[in-house]
Amino acid sequence: MLNSTEYMKRIIMKKPSTLLFVFALVCLMPSAYAQVNSLPHLSKEGAATQLIVDGKPFLVLGGELHNSSSSSLEYMQPIWPRLAAMHVNTVLTPVCWDLIEPQEGKFDFTLVDGLIQQARRNDLRIAFLWFGSWKNGVSTYPPAWVKTDSARFPRMKDEAGHPLETLSPLSAATRDADAHAFAALMRHIREVDGQTHTVLMMQVENEVGVLGESRDRSAAANEAFGKAVPAELMQYLQKHKDTLIPEFRKVWEDAGGRTSGTWEQVFGPGKPKGLAIPVRTLSPPMTPEEHETAWRNLYWSVDEIFMAWQYARFVGQVVQAGKAEYNIPMYVNAWLQQRDHAWPGTYPSGGPLPQVVDVWRAGAPGLDMLSPDLYVQEFDELATRYTRSGNPLFIPESAGDARGAANVLAAFGQYKLIGYSPFGIESTSAAGPDGPPAIAKAYELLAQLSPLIVAHQQKGTIAGVALDKDHPSKKIQLGNYTLSVSFARSWMTAQNPDYAGAIIISTGEGEYLIAGKGVSVTFSCGRTDCPAMGLASVEEGTYTGGAWIPGRRLNGDEIMSGTGLRLPSENYTVQKVELYQYR
Ligand code: DGJ
Q: Whose CA is nearest to atom 9 of ligand 1?
């Protein structure tokens, strides 16, 4: 993806005479040009893909509301200022199909308008979550005229033929009704917000996938499952063979690497007949070892791949209908495979999980991002799996506690994060005995550093680290040095805190800015024959309006007698260090 300036530069360099043409074009159509380019969009800027809002990169310091809060404007009234005070800049909030289209074709956007106005009054932005045909796998948000008409809007069936409370994604009628409502929503958002851009992006559906079964077993689904894998998917896989996600490619190759055939011929056998899917994979009981390892294995992949294709095709059409009305970034979110939910069907089978990213890319090319709801402890492992093949990382749901605060600092550096959003943010907004909650303090720091973070994300001169009990130290290679990061210790603190995190920026040769809490950092050249080196100077300070305002000059105990930085566990600080070498 080229940004518009780069694109213009390339055209002009190839053929200077086009300069006049481009100039005339811009003069003739200034308002149209400005409008198209000012819509929130994703753009590849140097080493990072960033969200551009009103012409500038924007870091989403988000928070997702509980599911029902925003159904009442009165209930929401006191929440907005509390979130703003926590340095949240974007609120993720549902828009529910049943509330905007209670009768077929009759739309009511009162709530949408009210939320946009409330957000504006509090200087906040919004990402709307389209709770359409599915939310957490099931179909509780479609309007009654959809829910009650199973003949027109068919449901999935389990193996025994029982209906699930889940609409089947194989239905064109359901897809068209969902897409029609979503398009009306996007048209309305363009009308009321096309100039102001309070609404930054859209999540399409919520954690889609089949629960209680590994795949849809309705008659229509069984028929499609027995037919050939669509040529469109097969062609995509062959074209992208070298860059396919490795675990997905292995499933395909283990089944013989065929380029045509039925789903089971191409991707192997599905779930054995008669095997019931429990709610959690603890039942039937597993040994602790099985429980620990099962969630990283794949089971009956064909069922998951088949469903991923059905959901991707459905969601892809909803996205297309919405973007035709108002083209802002759109993403889908995933309920991840995890310890208690290891088998497809105990987590939503066919959702945008890392193992089926390629299927989603093939089926829904209009989507901008596939996003994990990242609650599991293995934050780095999942963030890494989601950034493979260039997927920009946006985390719409996660923890908002001390762990979340450590991870968010690390992730904006390490994964060039677009945004982070703890779930149930309105419950974490009260200040405790230690003042504002950890996430508010981390957001304050990130807001302060944001001009620097976006610039260094583009240059690729940024990293981050989060520590916990299982990962009490980490090594980071950045600039010309290896940084060893571990829990900050002092002679006064007996034990490590549970979590610590920092964002690290290489600001020049032998110069770093490190911001966060509870870490110590030492430097080496990463070889055994490093020259002797030390810290020339360490300053604590803040950024105000992009300018560094120095505070204390740190030395002695505060720099561990010259051996490294120490960011205290008690509060968030920013430190600047210059290294030097001596003989
Ligand atoms: C994940 C869902 O996406 C959210 O809407 C919410 O239901 C949370 N789970 C609840 O923990």
A: 136
Q: How much of the chain is in helix, strand and coil states, percent to nearest 5?
A: 40, 30, 35
Share of the chain above pLDDT 70, in %: 92
pLDDT tops 70 at residue 84: yes
Distance CA 502, CA 485 (A): 9
Q: Whose CA is nearest to atom 2 of ligand 1?
A: 136
Mutational pocket test of ligand 1: of 397, 421, 425, 427, the residue with most ligand atoms within 8 Å of the beta carbon = 397
What's the one-letter identity of residue 9? K
What are the phi and psi torsion angles at 545 (to 5°)? 55, 35
For the packed helices 438-459 and 402-414, what is the interaxial angle rounded to 10 degrees?
A: 10
Residue 300 — very low, low, confident or very high, per pLDDT cuts 50/70/90?
very high
DSSP, residue by residue, 520-532? EEEEE-SSTTPPE
Q: How confident is the model at residue 491 (pLDDT cuts 50, 70, 90)?
A: low
Question: What is the Å distance from ligand 1's center to 138 Cα?
Answer: 12
Instruction: Give the integer Cα–Cα distance in Å for 165 and 137.
Output: 9
Q: Burial level of 397, CB count in 10 A (0-12/13-18/19+)?
A: buried
Atom from ligand 1 closest to the CA of residue 129: 5
DSSP string, 90-119: EEEEEEEHHHH-SBTTB---HHHHHHHHHH
Q: What is the 3-state secondary structure (H, E, C) of 153-220?
A: CCEEECCCCCEEEEECCCCHHHHHHHHHHHHHHHHHHHHHHCCCCCEEEEEEEECCCECCCCCCCCHH
* Distance (Å) from CA 136 to ligand 1 centroid: 7
Ligand 1 atom closest to 333 (CA): 3
The structure tokens listed for 309 are: 């294709």
Question: CA 105 to CA 101: how far, in whole Å?
Answer: 7
Name the β-bridge partners of 128.
93, 202
Calculated CA dihedral for residues 293, 299, 305, 307, nearest 10 degrees: -100
Written as one letter, the residue type at 185 is L
- Which residues' Cβ are closer than 6 Å to ligand 1? 67, 136, 206-207, 373, 397, 423
Q: In what order do the strands lie in the sheet with 41-45?
A: 41-45, 48-53, 56-57
Q: How many angstroms is it from 478 CA to the middle of ligand 1?
A: 36
For residue 356, how many other CB atoms are within 10 A of its CB? 31
Q: List the Cα angle 239/240/243 in 5-degree steps.
A: 155
User: Which letter does DSSP use for residue 17 in this model?
Assistant: T
What does the buried/exposed string (b/e) look like for 89-98 if buried means 16 or more CB atoms within 10 Å of the residue's CB? bbbbbbbbbb
pLDDT of the residue at 492: 61
Measured from the Cα of 67, ligand 1's closest atom is: 5
- How many angstroms separate the alpha carbon of residue 206 from the centre of ligand 1? 9
Question: 2-16, 211-225, 293-307, 460-474 — which is least confidently predicted?
Answer: 2-16
Q: How far is the CA of 135 from the centre of ligand 1 (A)?
A: 8
Q: According to the model, what pLDDT value does residue 470 have?
A: 92
The residue whose C-alpha atom lies closest to atom 8 belonging to ligand 1 is 423
Residue 135: the pLDDT is 98
